[in-house]
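Batch job 17 of 40 flagged for manual review because the log was empty.
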Amino acid sequence: MAQFGFENDIHSILKLDMPISNAPMARWQRKASSSNTSALSGLSPGKSTNVSQSSSKTPSKTPGKNKKQTPSKMGGDRFIPTRNSNQMDVASFLLTKENDCLDTNNTAGNSDNQKAWSVSLNGYNIEDAKILHLGGKPLNAPEGYQNNLKVLYSQVATPASAKKTRYISLTPDRILDAPALRNDFYLNLLDWSSRNVLAVALHNTAYLWDASQGDIVQLMKLDREEDYICSLSWTKEGSYLAIGTSDCKVQLWDVENQKRLRSMPSHTARVGSLSWNDHILSSGSRSGHIHHHDVRVADHHIFTLSGHSQEVCGLTWSPDGRYLASGGNDNLVCIWPRVTGGSNGGSNESQSVRAWSEHQGAVKALAWCPWQPNILASGGGTSDRHIRIWNVNSGSCISSIDTQSQISSLCFAPNYKELVSAHGYAHNNVVIWNYPSLTRVAELNGHDDRVLSLTMSPDCSTVATVAGDETIRMWKSFELDPVKKKAKERLVKSTNSVIHHSIR
């Protein structure tokens, strides 16, 4: 019986069936009573309520509006979540007892018994009835949760101008042996065709390497051992290869049939540079003369250009075929107009459009900009070491930079609007420059001797370099992003369809 009496007492305490006589007033009751007292104290004797409200600092209504004002709720100083009446009663009781001394005899087992009694009597744990409850360890975030605002608290701010840059490998994608390569700065011994075939001259023999399949073919070999190949140049279609030799001749070869079509003598010294413009083949000689050959006719020599006093080691036609740029060992850069007609015996001579003498060393490195046909880049030798950008139309030097190294070859990389330079003494490396700012993008090191020539692959993703260490290295540094590559292919297909439609 005593046990049932004890349970009844506990039940009566938790249920709060009758008010607690000696309990202090709850805080929300104290707040409500103080608010009512302050409101009543503001009333002056003998004056109506309306007068006191009108004299208040804050008007009860917005001036100029007759809308009914929402009455303010008094007595609430914070938000209290919705609970049932039993929980509110228990919470009120716990608030009145928050300042009482804790029972030191309360053990962990006793607290467990109280929790069991509370659940059996009230249907919930009494601890859950607390309005504010602080304690315990914080809950872990659910798996996979990500805080989207965490960047706001980062100590290192991300610059607004930072852009995602491509990855450039500093090691070559492929290395080929080039034994018996002639280590001569003034020769042009490497060229890559539009059909993805790389031609290289090793002393007196010309070899072809198919980049698609990896096959190597010996195209030709000079009859005399003392003779050597000085220059190579593919036609635009990639079917024919022109070869300049040390015995003052220019040979034309059908690559598919591996047959020599003709041998064209006209120079008095070795032919160190070649460049095609449709059916016109231009050749530069050690004598300083440039000859134009029309390969369609028997009398091939149709024009002679005399502007250099020493060997012509750089020669290239502009993409639109309007101008021929030549560089020589006399430190000159000359711009020649397009050939308009033939002549008998090559007696006619043409005057250069531009002649620049700013370089202080031999100018072998020449490159036209593919997307700006009037822009020419030139590079000087050991005494100069400068890259200069020229505007052919105005004749002015747009910009220049000292590379601190001999420049042997230049080419533009259209995939990323960049300029690539090959260097000899003293760095023996390849440098990628941003155009037109001429800031360094990357340096490709690997050759043990000076880099003599470089050439770009037909898809403009890879550059091949040949050096005095008798190696050819492939640098796959300009490969397009797959998304950009697909967009470019779609553009090319649409352009071709328009061309075919206009032809029909």
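Reviewer: the log was empty due to a logging misconfiguration, but the result itself is present. The two ends are 113 Å apart (CA to CA). Unflagging and moving on to job 18.
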